[in-house]
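Suppose you are handed only these lines of text.
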Amino acid sequence: EKGDFEHFMLKEIFEQPKTIEDTFRGRINPEHTEIVLGGLLDVLPKILKARRIIIIGCGTSWHAALVGEYLIEEYARIPVEVEYASEFRYRNPILNSEDVVIAISQSGETADTLAALRMAKERGATILGVCNVVGSSIARETDGGVYTHAGVEIGVASTKAFTAQVTIMTLFALKLAKENGRISSGLYLDLIKELSEIPEKVKSILVKHPHIKEVAAKYKDAINALYLGRGALFPVALEGALKLKEISYIHAEGYAAGEMKHGPIALVDDNLPVIVVAAKDHYYEKIVSNIQEVKARKGNIIAVVTEGDTGLTSMVNDLFEIPKSHPAVSPLLAIIPLQLFSYYIAVMRGCDVDQPRNLAKSVTVE
Ligand code: F6R
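From them, the structure of the protein bound to fructose -6-phosphate can be written out as follows.
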């Protein structure tokens, strides 16, 4: 039931402090010193020896996979590739028993993802699943996996399932890093702590929804929007753009900010909202230059920034602040204002937020 919320999507956005916590609780010991992923116990030695990890998915789940790629390579130093399941299944990939293929799927029933997994299994790879629906086809057919504990997601546009998937990717990356000795125990403990603080930080973003709604009102009549990010915040830009297009029908594109001058900068004029995910991390200086480039062409900039970062105030039109956090966990915070921004714009445009046109919650045909 929707309770006090006007739509399931809004309710699910507001559930995220709990669903993120439900997803890591039981996977982190009470002392916050160890990550336990029971569903991977049998296959862990295989993953640690993997030649590479390939993560597959569609849509939002593919975006969570991209965050996983950044985290696993950064902390565990195991090569990772991310592919659209729909491409992977048809392109005759080179696979053998030294490969681990992980499917991310909220429903666990996506036709392309399931078919890609079956193909990978036939070719000898170890196959794993990160699913939300317990007992779903992908969950049943895999050699191991981890459930996201997001609860039932009714809104067609995925919100709480995404942050649960990213939470699992974070736990998984840290677990592998610890097991293969690539992370110092100090950093490992710090990052477990950072993750455990995310639910409170998400709450502090959600309470600012009136501000996000005001900003949304300014941009509700946009025809196009450009989302930019770098590093693990690049997939957040992609996910922000997907949310906007699927529920408000505004054409939106997500881009790696460094790619801007290779094409999309031609779109920038005084009509174009450019949403820049600019939280403080080691890409920050680079993203500030991208903001300057957009400003010089009179684009309207909405920046997601770290609280207290006043340096950008004069450069941008609007700011969404997120609490300070380690860059490893900031995707979980940066996506929250973008979900709300899309939601409010879609509502103001009179769109059917929970059931956008032409979309289905579970894509069981290709
Ligand atoms: C976006 C969305 C879709 C799904 C995609 C994969 O909001 O909901 O892009 O993410 O269809 O679905 P699952 O995760 O069920 O495999």
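What can we learn from it? The two ends are 30 Å apart (CA to CA). The longest helix spans residues 160-179.
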